[in-house]
Backbone:
C-alpha cells in the first residue's frame, strides 16, 4: 500500500474531496510551515504542492513556485469541486470514442430499439469518424464550430 507523506492519500482508504496546500521546503507543525525546520528539498524545485482529492477519492497533485499561485489554483479547484464541475487532468486524456461508447451503452437500458439505431447511425457516420481518437481535453468550442460548419 503506497502512502504519500505529508498529505496522505492511501490506495485503499477514501478521503474527503478537497484541495490542500503543502509547503515542500519546510516541515509542518500544527498544519503550518515550521521555518526553523527546512526539508532536504529546500531551494530545489517548486515549493508548494497542491493535493487534490476528487469526489471519487482519487488523489492528484500540482506544483507551484509561489504561494499566491497555489492559493489561486486552490480557490479555483475548490469552487469546481463544490459545484461539481471538477475534472482531473487524466480525464481529459480519455478519447472521445471511449466516452461515446460508454454513453451509448448507458442509453441501451432505457431507450427503445429505433432510437438506439438512430444514435448508433449518427455516431458511426457523422461523429466518430472525426472525433473517435481525439482526447476529450483537446476538444474545444472552436473545433466543434469548425466541424459543424463543414
Residues:
Amino acid at each position: 500500500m503506497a502512502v504519500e507523506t505529508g498529505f496522505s492519500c492511501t490506495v485503499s482508504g477514501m478521503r474527503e474531496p478537497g484541495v490542500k496546500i503543502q509547503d515542500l521546503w519546510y516541515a509542518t507543525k500544527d498544519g503550518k510551515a515550521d521555518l526553523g525546520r527546512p526539508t532536504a528539498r529546500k531551494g530545489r524545485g517548486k515549493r508548494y504542492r497542491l493535493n487534490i482529492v476528487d469526489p471519487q477519492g482519487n488523489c492528484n497533485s500540482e506544483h507551484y513556485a509561489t504561494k499566491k499561485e497555489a492559493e489561486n489554483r486552490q480557490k479555483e479547484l475548490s469552487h469546481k469541486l463544490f459545484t461539481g464541475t471538477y475534472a482531473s487532468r487524466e480525464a481529459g486524456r480519455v478519447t472521445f470514442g471511449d466516452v461515446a461508447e460508454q454513453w451509448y451503452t448507458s442509453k441501451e437500458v432505457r431507450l427503445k430499439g429505433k432510437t438506439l439505431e438512430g444514435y448508433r447511425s449518427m455516431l458511426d457516420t457523422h461523429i466518430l469518424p472525426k472525433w473517435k481518437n481525439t482526447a476529450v481535453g483537446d476538444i474545444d468550442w472552436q473545433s466543434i464550430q469548425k466541424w459543424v460548419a463543414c
